[in-house]
């Protein structure tokens, strides 16, 4: 690529680094919990409602009537990618106990589920929905249209009319946005005898095969392995990003639901999806080593490009005194557009999003509002799953706001923006609220003095958004430190 001036070259480098930092992370997930209290290796599994951590296990519900609980992984899974159409493979292995504590009558069961993020609580409490939904919600078209789920249910109570009829009351089913199973089979279990069961759920995106393998007991004594599978296109049923975990409930009858172990592994839809689904028996630390190394090298290369090549290019153009001062130019409208584009990429959304909440419709105004409330990093694209350097992201967003400032005189020169991005200068202190643009008729001055006056004003401006050097670092940190 040929650059006609160092100004364009620097813009290109800054945007390239920005793209690197906020490019979607390779969203592979891999963990193996045999003790849910040990969160030193993996992100935690979060219990909600009546679910609690109990020693090394998670108790999804106590042995009490009208209870429900969930345990979800704290990171969302990137299930499929809209741009490429690629879909993730995943394998979920887990062990659990359902125990009636000797009672002959009991209910209701548990599920492994994938759902729309922030899936609503079942309301009102309803044991038949297994901690996911209630009968009332299942009868609401609006609820069903906005809240999607695919679940594997281990149902211990026959609820007419939607549960299938087998020779035993218990069944395992694959449920799609409904508590009536899309496919099911009888489950030969012994709920009264406090036994541990195992299950493995596997999705192969190349064949769309959603398969379940689980244990049971023939004649209440002999361990057996049972199977259930269906061909399911998850891209038609679930959003790109899903939360996943377990739910359980009790109704008029009760039983104890305990999750004893859970291992999970998924591929990233951003990577090659032609390979078979991963095996959870692999070394959990191995898959991301090459990825981390590659990203680290990439970061070093981009940083070197900015720090080393910039002086080279500046020297190359030094013959012209006018071009020598290019890096002191204030960001103009074309550069403003570049940084607004960078903000757009960082947040994973368009400059104007009509479907967003009213206060989030206009991207620049929304980011500025978050800046003023010390929540700037909340604007980062959720698909990054928090996998970025917070200080770098904060600097890039603040510099983006600075360069897109409605007051032209407050915008930085290229030199100043580079210094801030390189951590060689403090972050600027911008107004807590985005200022309204003003349009004033400039005085009639000679062209030679106009540039000089404008530059002098820019350099000496005492406005809140002005760049004043490292002395502002402490003040900025105290007043506008971003938090998630």
Automatic annotation (TrEMBL):
PROSITE patterns the record matches: LECTIN_LEGUME_ALPHA (PS00308), LECTIN_LEGUME_BETA (PS00307)
Protein name: Legume lectin domain-containing protein
Keyword Transmembrane helix in annotation: yes
Family: Belongs to the leguminous lectin family.
Extent of Polar residues compositional bias: 460-472
GO molecular function: carbohydrate binding
Signal peptide: 1-27
Region (Disordered): 441-472
Alphabetic keyword roster: Lectin, Membrane, Signal, Transmembrane, Transmembrane helix
């Amino acid at each position: 690529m040929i650059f006609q001036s160092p100004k364009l070259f620097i813009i290109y480098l800054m945007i390239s680094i920005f793209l690197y930092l906020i490019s979607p992370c390779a969203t592979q997930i891999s963990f193996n919990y045999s003790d849910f209290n040990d969160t030193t290796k993996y992100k935690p599994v979060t219990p909600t409602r009546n679910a609690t951590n109990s020693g090394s296990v998670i108790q999804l519900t106590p042995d009490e009537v009208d209870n429900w609980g969930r345990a979800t992984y704290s990171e969302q899974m990137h299930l499929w990618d809209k741009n490429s159409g690629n879909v993730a493979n995943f394998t979920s292995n887990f062990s659990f106990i359902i125990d009636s504590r000797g009672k002959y009558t009991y209910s209701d069961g548990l599920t492994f589920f994938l759902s729309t993020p922030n899936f609503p609580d079942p309301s009102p409490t309803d044991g038949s929905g297994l901690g996911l939904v209630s009968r009332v919600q299942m009868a609401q078209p609006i609820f069903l249209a906005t809240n999607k789920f695919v679940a594997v249910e281990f149902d211990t109570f026959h609820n007419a009319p939607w549960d299938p009829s087998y020779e035993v009351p218990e069944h395992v089913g694959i449920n799609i946005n409904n508590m009536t199973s899309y496919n099911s089979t009888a489950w030969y279990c012994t709920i009264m005898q406090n036994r541990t069961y195992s299950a493995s759920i596997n999705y192969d995106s190349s064949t769309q095969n959603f398969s379940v393998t689980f244990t049971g007991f023939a004649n209440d004594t002999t361990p057996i392995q049972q199977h259930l599978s269906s061909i399911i296109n998850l891209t038609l049923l679930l959003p790109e990003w899903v939360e996943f975990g377990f739910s359980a409930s009790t109704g008029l009858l009760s039983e104890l639901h305990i999750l004893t172990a859970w291992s999970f592994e998924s591929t990233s839809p951003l990577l090659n999806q032609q390979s078979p689904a991963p095996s959870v028996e692999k070394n959990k630390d191995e898959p991301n080593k090459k990825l981390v190394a590659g990203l680290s090298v990439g970061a070093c290369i981009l940083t070197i490009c900015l720090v080393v090549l910039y002086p080279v290019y500046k020297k190359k153009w030094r013959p012209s005194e006018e071009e020598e001062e290019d890096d002191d130019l204030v960001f103009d409208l074309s550069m403003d557009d570049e940084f607004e584009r960078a903000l757009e990429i960082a947040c994973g959304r368009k400059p104007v999003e009509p479907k967003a909440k009213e206060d989030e419709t206009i991207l620049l105004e929304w980011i500025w509002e978050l800046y003023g409330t010390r929540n700037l990093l909340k604007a980062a694209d959720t698909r990054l799953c928090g996998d970025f350097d917070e200080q770098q992201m904060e600097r890039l967003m603040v510099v983006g706001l600075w360069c897109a400032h409605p007051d032209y005189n407050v915008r930085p020169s290229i030199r100043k923006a580079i210094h801030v991005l390189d951590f060689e200068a403090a972050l600027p202190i911008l107004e807590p609220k985005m200022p309204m643009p003003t349009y004033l008729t400039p005085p009639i001055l000679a062209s030679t003095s106009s540039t000089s006056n404008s530059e002098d004003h820019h350099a000496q401006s005492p406005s809140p958004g002005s760049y004043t050097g490292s002395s502002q670092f402490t003040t900025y940190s105290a007043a506008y430190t971003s938090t998630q």
